[in-house]
Amino acid sequence: MFFRNIIGQQDVIQRLLQTVANNRISHAQLFFGPQGSGSLALAFAYARYIHCTARTAEEACGQCPSCVKYDKLVHPDLHFVHPIALSKDVRISTDVVTEWRQAILADPYLTLEGWLNRLEAENKQAVIGTEESGEILRKLSLTTYEGEYKIMLIWLPEKMNASAANKLLKILEEPPDKTLFLLVTENEDQLLRTIVSRTQLVKVRRIADDELRRALMLRHEMSESDAAKMAYQADGNYAAALRLLERDEQAAFNLATFQSWMRASLKFDAAKVMAVVDELASIGRERQKHFLAYALDIVRDSLLMNYGDPSLVRLSGEEEAFVKKFAPFIHTANGERFIEELNKAYRDIERNGSPKIVLMDMSFRMNELLNVPKATA
């Protein structure tokens, strides 16, 4: 992450550049901004700039040995602390360092929800535990390898339990030599006041609509009108804009896959059913759950179209055309069982059932249900 990759926030970037130019880098800085504003991305870009050995007045060089290591987040003087889902095998941030690097490199505007989804731990509590404070002390006791500073980047310090927060406070009061703490928070109010008082606040505001619109047009090849609409909906939150984009892309995937699945299941074309099951098995548990939730929505819309108020079916384009053709297959003789079976499949996936087994079994059920005559209702 470079400063040039940040959406907006030019006033913050200029202040950060000035601290380095004037050799007035505070030993503890608290980046505070709402989700999706870029506070984490800014902290990474700032750390890179500080460690860069050939930086210009405006940016890190991107080519020196330090920058090459930052490209993979393996710089020996850059250390991370972030929330984790505690388990027998995961006690500190270092235990999931590979997953963390992959997550940040893929999305510097990472959210806590997105991070937990990557760990497949979305139902667990995210914490920074007591053992983490001991690991911080151990890492900071090491001498610097390459950079002038050791940099400790702590993401969402508000997730620290009381013991860890108090130990961090002690470190901030007596910081090791040539050590920088970059704390990145979305909820300053949840931090100990004594921690906040010992840091220099770096206020990061929501992204201006015009800046977010331009970024969406440039990065995602959106039309100006679509980008303006999405920027307005996201309300200065780039992470929210990405979720909206993903939802649109996922909706298209879900519709096409559901169509293929139902057509293959109707006459049970084994080869085509296996192709759909293999594709769904490859997309990850969270997306599988989203797909099954989408299938439930299609079944409910079909029932509404047949027996309820069609005006309540808020569909358009390809979805509307498909549901009109699919609705005759969903009726009083099978509608309730369709919903029961899809809910059961959702629960089985959520409980770590084998996706291939669950979805293949579901395909047999679909074949049976799709061929229930309406006349028996």
| Total domain modules | 2
How many E strands? 5
Please identify which CATH superfamily of the largest domain we are dealing with. P-loop containing nucleotide triphosphate hydrolases
Strand content: 5-15%
Architecture of the largest domain in CATH? 3-Layer(aba) Sandwich
Radius of gyration: 25 Å
Distance between the termini: 60 Å
User: Remind me, CATH topology of the largest domain?
Assistant: Rossmann fold
Q: Sum up the overall morphology in one term.
A: elongated
Helix content: 40-55%
Provide the CATH top-level class of the largest domain.
Alpha Beta
Largest sheet: 5 strands, parallel
Structural class: alpha/beta
N-to-C order of helices and strands: HEHHEHHHEHEHEHHHHHHHH
Describe the structure using short key phrases.
single chain; about 375 residues; alpha/beta; Rossmann fold; Zinc Finger, Delta Prime, domain 3; 2 domains; five-stranded parallel beta sheet; 16 helices; 5 strands; about 55% helix
